[in-house]
Amino acid sequence: xxxxxxxxxxxxxxxxxxxxxxxxxxxxxxxxxxxxxxxxxxxxxxxxxxxxxxxxxxxxxxxxxxxxxxxxxxxxxxxxxxxxxxxxxxxxxxxxxxxxxxxxxxxxxxxxxxxxxxxxxxxxxxxxxxxxxxxxxxxxxxxxxxxxxxxxxxxxxxxxxxxxxxxxxxxxxxxxxxxxxxxxxxxxxxxxxxxxxxxxxxxxxxxxxxxxxxxxxxxxxxxxxxxxxxxxxxxxxxxxxxxxxxxxxxxxxxxxxxxxxxxxxxxxxxxxxxxxxxxxxxxxxxxxxxxxxxxxxxxxxxxxxxxxxxxxxxxxxxxxxxxxxxxxxxxxxxxxxxxxxxxxxxxxxxxxxxxxxxxxxxxxxxxx
Amino acid sequence: xxxxxxxxxxxxxxxxxxxxxxxxxxxxxxxxxxxxxxxxxxxxxxxxxxxxxxxxxxxxxxxxxxxxxxxxxxxxxxxxxxxxxxxxxxxxxxxxxxxxxxxxxxxxxxxxxxxxxxxxxxxxxxxxxxxxxxxxxxxxxxxxxxxxxxxxxxxxxxxxxxxxxxxxxxxxxxxxxxxxxxxxxxxxxxxxxxxxxxxxxxxxxxxxxxxxxxxxxxxxxxxxxxxxxxxxxxxxxxxxxxxxxxxxxxxxxxxxxxxxxxxxxxxxxxxxxxxxxxxxxxxxxxxxxxxxxxxxxxxxxxxxxxxxxxxxxxxxxxxxxxxxxxxxxxxxxxxxxxxxxxxxxxxxxxxxxxxxxxxxxxxxxxxxxxxxxx
Lengths: 368, 374
Prior knowledge:
The structure holds two protein chains of two kinds.
Chain A: H1 2-17, H2 20-40, E1 48-54, H3 59-70, E2 74-79, H4 86-91, E3 97-101, H5 105-110, E4 115-122, H6 126-150, E5 158-164, H7 171-193, H8 195-202, H9 204-209, H10 215-243, H11 253-277, H12 281-298, H13 310-315, H14 320-334, H15 338-364
Parallel strand pairs in A: 1-2, 1-3
Antiparallel strand pairs in A: 3-4
Helix pairs in contact in A: 1-10, 2-7, 2-10, 7-10, 7-11, 7-12, 7-14, 8-11, 10-11, 10-15, 11-12, 11-14, 11-15, 14-15
Chain B: H1 5-22, H2 24-44, E1 52-58, H3 63-73, E2 78-83, H4 86-94, E3 100-104, H5 108-113, E4 119-125, H6 129-153, E5 162-169, H7 176-197, H8 200-207, H9 209-214, H10 220-250, H11 258-283, H12 286-296, H13 298-303, H14 316-322, H15 326-339, H16 344-371
Parallel strand pairs in B: 1-2, 1-3
Antiparallel strand pairs in B: 3-4
Helix pairs in contact in B: 1-10, 2-7, 2-10, 7-10, 7-11, 7-15, 8-11, 10-11, 11-12, 11-15, 11-16, 15-16
């Protein structure tokens, strides 16, 4: 029996890797995508295009504008001469925001009154707009505090803000561990979702069913390439995250790996289910996308689950990626031990068990 | 036009159309997929943090501390959880029961009255850096509002050297839905285009029917036209459905003109279908074409198109790479047409880039298909 399964496993690997094109399609894109996405997927605002319209000639406004010119978040793309230039510039995306200092600014400040400044922000990307606004606010409030301190005034109370686990709030630290979960899913699904459908279309799956192999033996044979490729690629990606992107790995690999293996098994279950459901490759491809896209969106990879309406949040509990995403981020950044994510581990194990069992059953009981 | 071309293309379309109808998956791709994805994206993707769970530790219930803490109960942004000690709060943060802590020490009220400028401790969980930053922004807002209120109560105006007035154009309420839903359309159209066509040419090669077609009098252009037209009609149907849903369900305003939206969308669909044909022609095997479609369509359109991650914030090399992603141009056009209006200086260059990509894909498909005749 042992060598029967072994023979099947070897055959599955050959089916996947004998062809150079399919070998390349499975191995190369994830590594390339990790490098590209690791840099691309950022919510940090850097060098945001800023236009300055300073109608005032005094030192006070020059000092204020200088704060914006020197900050790393903004890059001054132009100095405007009139208010009419602002709208066309922002409309065509030439600047993300415009700072408008009125002609009275320095004289108002000299008289001890407030200098009113205006900031106009392109809201097409609402998140960038909010980040830019927060950035402007903090520059202005630092400036205010310093000015007030010069006159010996103090604010009645001050905020003392700190961030745990990611002190500089780099969004890359959040996104790159997420990419581990994302690419592990895609690779595993790519390997498994097409494997049965391909044989169904070619007619060889019926031949496999009439061999002495039992359904669970077929399951092992079909699951092994997914498990090895999924865990292998994930390990490579983890190494790149740690050594290339320098994401701090605070926790233990020994707690991350059991979670990774269960995660990959649950994706294999989903992939084989899709595959045995489909009669053609076209259907399997559609099935794969019908799973991948919702799974990525509902996992909290790019936008937090907490922001979703209640019924969507309930749906996320069906998504294996949701659990592993939480685990991988917490192990990386918080150094969480198994006692902190046990409640994420067991639902994922149930999903794995149910989908693998369903897939095995579907081998013999296909729909049409 | 060559004699009989219309007839041959018509015959090809009919054949392709029958194949579409007989395999329900194409219909599902064109109509079911966009509906499902729009619902999931529309409701699931939001960057507006509301009801953030925050631990409030007020060590001394004096009037200053209570009035400051009260601000957290009056905003939709926070769902505060009152805890008795900072140790409890830190444990809650570590267990992910709260996303942040606001801590007023026992001497806060006393130092406030002494004008000692007491600190308000704020700790956020920085794992999700973006949300953490938004939370910090909200806390600053509450803090500033409270300072103004306290000054008013004392009969003064909070005098700061610079007063900031802010305006966010095109999306004054900063609803992330308004910016995300137009981008979602681009991701959906990329998927539909590629899924519909990624396998159709490979299938003909694999089954040997392509050779059969090539020996007939039908030319390569006619074959490709016959394949393009049915899927284009299907795709436009899916597109119209998605746009109607985006408008009626998510109330995204359309400030540009409808005809321009439809014209640019048709252009993008042509490019997306071309990409599918391209994959199909290059790989000639359904299995490999499906592998390539899975790894090369969704994620690049999702991450590199500017749909959610701002292209301007990416490093220059990556910004250069995004120019290879057709969805990037369409996202730009969509966000501008929906939220700003017909800004030709945005629409024209992006549309020109789409035309270029479309010509490349369809041209390559034509060349590669002809080569195999020899």
